[in-house]
């Protein structure tokens, strides 16, 4: 990927400056290094979109269960290397006219997720799996790493997730 090449050139002393996004940056610069590393706020965000026309996602309880089963803090601490905060909505604070500071992140609660899935009539079957979803992601950090964390988190409440990864070249064709 171009970001990886940019980071390598910077670390090798072949470049003076790069705008590489932090999660894809090699953290060797944290050690004593001639590279000065700074992070700045951004309005970038990662989100999970759902196809509301396909069962079981047609059921609001299932969507709420997924929201409860995703530990956003674990995603920030893991794939995002602690750089970020869980979003409370589509807009970030830098979009002042649309941002609502009173919106709250759904609470991470596996028990609540299981109760919602039970109420929606999804029954654990083989290996405790209630149903399987397909998650389509760009095969690049941090998207593929976030997908892996979500796959593990949803598995804990009985939702199987098949991750389909596509390269940058394949992505527009998907």
Helix/strand layout:
Layout: H1 2-11, H2 60-69, H3 72-77, H4 110-119, E1 131-138, H5 143-155, E2 159-166
Parallel strand pairs: 1-2
Helix pairs in contact: 2-4
| End-to-end gap | 19 Å
Helix content: 25-40%
Radius of gyration: 19 Å
Strand order of the largest sheet: 1-2
SSE order: HHHHEHE
Q: Which regions contain 5 or more consecutive residues with pLDDT less than 50?
A: none
Count of helix runs = 5
Morphology: globular
> Biggest sheet: strands, sense, closure?
2 strands, parallel
List how many beta strands DSSP finds. 2
User: Helix/strand-derived class?
Assistant: alpha+beta
Strand content: 5-15%
Question: How confident overall, as mean pLDDT?
Answer: 86
